[in-house]
Structures are given as structure tokens and as C-alpha cells.
Amino acid sequence: MKRGILALLALAIVSGAGAALVALRQEAPKREASLLDQPVFPGLAERLAVAATVELRRHDGAVTLRREGDTWVVAEKHGFPAVPGRVRELFVGLAELRLVEERTANPDLFSRLGVEDPDTPGATSVLVTVKDQAGRELASLIVGRRRVRTAANLPEAVHVRRPGETRAWLAEGTLRPDTDPLLWLERDLLDIRRDRVASVTTRRVGADPLTLRRAAPGEEFTLVDGPEGFNADRIRLDDLPRALEFLSFTDVMPAAALADAPAAGEAHVATFDGLTVTLRLVTHEEQRWATIAVSWSAPKSPIAEDAPEPLLRPEAAKAEAEAVTARVRGWAFRLPDWKADVLTYRLEDVAARQENPS
């Protein structure tokens, strides 16, 4: 039964993409003695093959996931792609959810279980609704408080109620219907490790550019065109070649929406394996946002077959540039303040601090 559900969901969520869901090989959890053992939504796995939208609504927020071809996107974030694994996890959770026992038929007690009407001020419940392309409802459920019990290998359970019904249930299974749109986004943008970087230039609007360069991997970076006698803080200098390590964003919007935003600066990073990354930063509502352009060209010095990690062979570096470009083209990303600071470093930002003579 479980394998059948997983197979159907893999087709429903990533049809034609070759994705598959593989059940973990582990001891099956014990099941509590129960009054019931039946699915909350019989036959849902088959119906999810035509799912087109998922609405997750709380009294203080909502998320709408929309299917566009083989991709699920987040409507509240202008259609930016959702993490495929999170959508798959939600569908598997709904399809495998099984009623264990009735908890109450008294509406006055719904808030204790977190299954009150989601529109109630202060409610903690989440209404999950799945619809097809024509807007027909495939599944709808009010999801309340979870119950996790690790003792005796008992499975996770959650309190639920079907909209319009006056009975609340304990259901066995895992559901995490988050209503924060950011939690549905793949927020990692780039991870260009320091060892790949050949040069980096940053420029803040109104200031001269700052450039670091080295001739070969493993060498120290040197400051280009620094003033005579300038004493640099080596730790802060090293922030620059690490600027694109684990780069992620805190918000996203179409780049066209920021076409008139004032420029804040830019950064250019080149790698030994042929990658060039350009970030242009603007200021919008006192936050710094960046557009990203990535290109690849064959490096002047060919990468040796036995090149140390993390340098990439030409095919891999080119593929990386194409994949990142496909993901970031047309989008602007709000960056964490500390990362935006590094990407617009000035000469004075990397100067060694003077010791207090007193």
C-alpha cells in the first residue's frame, strides 16, 4: 500500500522528470491500539495526479502553491519555484494520514487541539486545501497540534478536523503545513568556495573599486593598486574571496520591479575554472537586493585532470553556470546585511585597526 502511494505521488509531483520516492528501510513503527485505522482521504494518491493548487491558510497568513508544468511555485513570492521535496512531503503526508481515534465532538474544545476555525483570531490551526486545474476540491483538512512520542517507537500523530464537521480526530502521520512562504523556497543561491576564486572586485557607489587577485590556487590574495604603506586586515580581506560561499537570500521579487531602485554597488568574482559571477546591488525600502549574472568561458590555464577539489572540470563548470543562470535570471534577491556589506567593501573597510597607544 505504502509503495503504491509513493509511486503515484512521484508521478503526480514530478511527472516526466524521472523523480521517484524511495521508502526508508527501517523497522516499521508500532501502532497504538485504536478505535479506527482508516485513511483520512481514501484514494487520495490517485487524485493528486491532477493536483494544481495547494492552499495553506492560517488566521495570520497563507501560502498558495501552484503547479506550472512540472514545477511547483509559490504565488505569494511572485511564482518563484518551491522546493520540490517539500511539496512531495506534504502530498505523501496527506495520502498516508490515517484516523486513529475520535477526540471530541464538542466545538468548545477544538482550540485545545488546535483544530478551531482558522479564521478565528489567535487560532493555531491551518486549513490545507488541494484543488485540481478546474478548482475542484481534492482534499481539505484543518490541521491542529502535533503529537510526537518517541517512546516505544510510536509514530507521530496530529489532531485534525474536516471543514464543516463537528468531530475532531487524532490521525497518525506527519504533516507540516507551514504558512510562511519563505519556508517553501529553495533559498540557497551559490556556493563558490574560496579555493576556486582567482579574483574578486567590489565597488560601493561613490567609492573606488577594491580588487584582490592571485595567480594560482593556494597562493595568498594580494590587494591590487593599494596605496603605499596600506596595512590591511588579513581576516577582513579574506571575507572577499569567501563572499559567495553559502550565499542565500531572505526574500525574492522580479528584477523588473527594482528597475528604478538606486544602485548600491556591485561585485565581480572570477574563478580559476572559468566562472564569472556579477552581482549588482540596489537599495529598496532600506534593504539591499541583488541581481546575479553567471557566465563561463574556458580558462586561460587548462584545469589539470588531477586538479584538487573544489576546482571543476570544464564540463562541470559550464553546467554549473547554466544551471545557476536558469534559476536566477529575471529575479532580484534580498541579501543578509552582513553579506551585502562584504559584496560592497571599500578600501577603508579592510584597513587594519590602529592600536590604541594608551
Explain what the structure shows.
The chain has 358 residues and is of the alpha+beta class. The chain has 2 domains: 2-24 and 32-184, no CATH class; 188-350, no CATH class. Helix content is 17%, strand content 32%. It is built from 7 helices and 20 strands. The protein has helices at 2-13, 44-47, 84-96, 110-113, 234-239, 314-328, 337-342; strands at residues 38-39, 51-58, 61-68, 71-74, 80-81, 98-104, 126-132, 137-147, 157-161, 168-172, 188-190, 197-204, 210-213, 222-224, 247-248, 251-254, 263-271, 275-284, 287-296, 331-334. It has a 10-stranded antiparallel β-sheet with strand order 1-6-10-9-8-7-2-3-4-5, covered by helices on one side. An 8-stranded antiparallel β-sheet has the order 14-13-12-17-18-19-20-16. Strand 3 and strand 4 form a beta hairpin. Helix 1 runs antiparallel to helix 3 (84-96). The longest helix is centred in the C-terminal third of the chain and has 15 residues, at 314-328. The radius of gyration is 26 Å and the shape is elongated. Mean pLDDT is 88; it is low at 11-34.
